Amino acid sequence: MSERNQRKELVGMVTNNTGNKSVKVTFDYKIPHPLYGKEIKRKTIVHAHDEANACKVGDKVRIMATRPLSKLKRWRIVDILQKAPRS
Fold first, then answer.
1. What is the CATH number of the domain that holds 73?
2. Counting runs of H as helices and runs of E as strands, what totals does the chain give?
3. Which of 77, 49, 42, 85 is nearest to 61 (CA)?
4. Is 31 a domain residue?
5. Structurally, how many domains does the chain consist of?
6. Which residues of 15-25 are buried (b: 16+ CB within 10 A; e: fewer)?
7. Considering only CA atoms, which of 84, 20, 12 is closest in space to residue 52?
8. Which of 1, 36, 67, 81 is deepest in the core (most CB within 10 A)?
9. What is the pLDDT of residues 6-60, one digit of tens each?
C-alpha cells in the first residue's frame, strides 16, 4: 500500500469530458529557451479515468499515475480540488 502513495501525482484542468468515465486533463508549464532564456509556454494533455463521472470541463483536479486502463489512459482522478463556476 505504501507504493501507491509514492506514485506520481499532478494537478491540472479538465478540458474535455465527452467520453464515459474518461476525461482529458491539461497541464500548463513554462520552460526557458535553451539559447535566449525567454520562457516558453508548453502544455501536456493526458487521458484520465473518472470512475464516478463527477468531473466537468473547467474543474481543477488531482490525478495519479496508475496501471494502463486502456490504449491511452494511464492516470486516474484522485479528487476534485476546485469546481468550475457554473452559469
1. 2.40.50.140
2. 1, 5
3. 77
4. yes
5. 1
6. eebeeebbbbb
7. 20
8. 81
9. 899 999 999 999 999 999 999 999 999 999 999 999 999 999 999 999 999 999 9
